From TrEMBL:
This is NitT/TauT family transport system ATP-binding protein. The keyword Ion transport does not apply. Residues 22-252 form the ABC transporter domain. Gene3D superfamilies: P-loop containing nucleotide triphosphate hydrolases. GO terms for molecular function: ATP binding; ATP hydrolysis activity. Pfam families: ABC_tran. It comes from the Bacteria.
């Protein structure tokens, strides 16, 4: 991941081949020998440098899809290609950040939480230390390098998890509601930080959320999923929208809200901010 001095507001032009190509993916879970379908038919692509948001109601299969792309679940149908490859066994080319605060190694200080996976993935001790320092600095964590996870707030733990994932320089960064368990104020601060960092680092990101505001703010494109078993309701381009005060930003939020409530046939669906 090349760090650039001037932040790019738009992803790389889409003339390049997609990095990730999801075509008619169908995913489910075996229960009593039968496939319970969670994701019925989902297609979308991610190009290098794009931040694609998966937005949809609770239970619609967002995490299922993300775990399938991470290689933890085999799709039951369709195809998922990463750089043209369909063998998606889990690997450091797809680092994952989860919502839970307990994803760090509790027995390692912050710095070692970053260097350990780098060492496991073949980096020399000197390289791992240099890369860890770079990403801790990027996420504003240098002062906390020696602290243990239990000494950090929820927001700081999530920043460490993001720094650790980015330090692996994955071809695709997978994030599953990483700010979902944070208070509103910390959440908007981390959204701003990620927005800046991800654009300057040219990271390619698939980000799961059920927050409309988060989807429009962080994303270049929003893939809207319907109620389960899910299909794609719409794919909306929001690359030009990064000012929440702009009328176009509010319009995009209103449009997404209408798509989600139009599809809200199950009373159990989440509320959307
Ligand atoms: P989301 O992340 O959009 O809230 P999930 O992908 O977690 O939704 O879940 C989609 C559906 O798959 C839900 O009906 C859920 O109950 C089901 N599901 C999720 N994980 C499992 C599992 N490990 N085994 C069986 N069913 C599951
Ligand atoms: Mg989920």
């Amino acid at each position: 991941m090349e760090l650039r001095t001037s932040p790019a507001d738009t992803p790389a032009p889409r003339t390049s081949a997609p990095l990730l190509d999801v075509e008619h993916a169908r995913v489910g879970y075996e229960l009593d020998g039968r496939l319970q379908v969670a994701v019925e038919d989902v297609s979308f692509a991610i190009h290098p440098g794009e931040h694609v948001m998966l937005l949809g109601p609770s239970g619609c299969g967002k995490s299922t899809l993300l775990k399938t792309i991470a290689g933890f679940i085999e799709p039951a149908g369709g195809s998922i290609r990463l750089n043209g490859r369909t063998d998606l066994s889990p690997g450091p080319d797809r680092a994952v950040v989860f919502q839970e605060f307990d994803q760090l190694f509790p027995w390692f200080p912050v710095e070692r939480n970053l260097t350990y996976p780098l060492r496991v993935n073949g980096r020399s001790k000197a390289d791992a230390a240099r890369i860890a320092a770079e990403y801790l600095d990027l996420m504003g964590l240098s002062h906390a390098a020696d602290r243990y996870p239990h000494q950090l707030s929820g927001g700081m733990k999530q920043r460490v998890a993001i720094a650790r994932a980015m330090a692996l320089e994955p071809v695709l960064l997978l994030m599953d509601e990483p700010f979902g368990a944070l208070d509103a104020q910390t959440r908007s601060r981390l959204q701003r930080e990620l927005h800046e960092v991800a654009r300057s680092a040219e990271a390619t990101i698939l980000f799961v959320t059920h927050s409309i505001q988060e989807a429009v703010y962080i994303g270049h494109r929003v893939v809207v999923l319907g109620t389960p078993p899910s299909t794609v309701v719409e794919i909306l381009d929001v690359a030009h929208l990064s000012d929440p005060a702009a009328p176009e930003f509010t319009d995009a939020m209103r449009h997404l809200r209408s798509l989600l409530s139009a599809d809200d046939s199950t009373a159990e669906s989440a509320t959307f901010e």
